[in-house]
Amino acid sequence: MTNVNKKDLLFQMQEVGHRIGTNAVMDFLESHGLEMDGVQLGFYVKDTSKVKWKGSSKFIKLYETEMERLMNKEIINFEILGFLTWLSKYLNYEDNSLINKDGTYLTQKDIIEITGWHKNKVSKTVKSLIENEILYEKKQEEDKRKSKYFMNPNLFFKGKNIDKDIKEFYDNKKKSKDETIK
Description:
- This protein has helices at residues 6-31, 64-72, 78-88, 108-115, 119-131, 164-181; strands at residues 61-62, 135-139, 147-151, 156-157.
- The protein has 2 domains: 1-51, no CATH class; 61-181, Winged helix-like DNA-binding domain superfamily/Winged helix DNA-binding domain (Arc Repressor Mutant, subunit A, Orthogonal Bundle).
- The protein is built from 6 helices and 4 strands; from the N terminus they run αβααααβββα.
- Helix 4 packs across helix 5.
- It has a two-stranded antiparallel sheet. A two-stranded antiparallel ribbon has the order 2-3.
- Strand 2 and strand 3 (147-151) form a beta hairpin.
- 15% of the residues are buried.
- The protein is elongated and about 75 Å long.
- By secondary structure, the chain is mainly α.
C-alpha cells in the first residue's frame, strides 16, 4: 500500500463511498423504473479523532497575512496590535462595527475608558488607524455628531456578514492598492 496521509485517505474514502452510493441508488431507481431529478446524493466520512473545541466560546478571526503586512510596513506595532486585539472583543457579529454590550456604538470616550489611555493618545491612534484603513469611520444615523467605527475585516473579523458600504470601501481600497503595485 502506498503511503497516504490521513486527510487524503479520508477524501479518497469519501469519493469511493459517493461513487458506490450513487451507482447503487441509480441501479435501484432503474430497476424500479423510476427517475429522480433535482436530488443530490452525498456521502460523508467524519474524522472522529477531532472533537469540537470550545464550541460555545466566542471567537474572532485574525488574518495573519494582513497583520504581518501591517507590521512589516510599520503601520502598526505591538502596542497598536494589542490595542486592536483588545477592541476586537467589541466587534459586532452583524457588521464588524465596534459596539458596547448594550448595542450602542463605541465612542472615543468609551475607548478611553476601555484602554485607560489618555484622550490625546486615543484620538491620535484612532485617526492614524482610519488614515491607514484599519478602522473605518461612518456617522451614526441617530446623531450625526457621533461616529461609529468598523474594523477592517481583512485584519479582524467576527461573523458571517459585513455592511455593504464597509465591504465596498475595503474592496475598492484593496483593488486600488493592487493596481498601484502592478
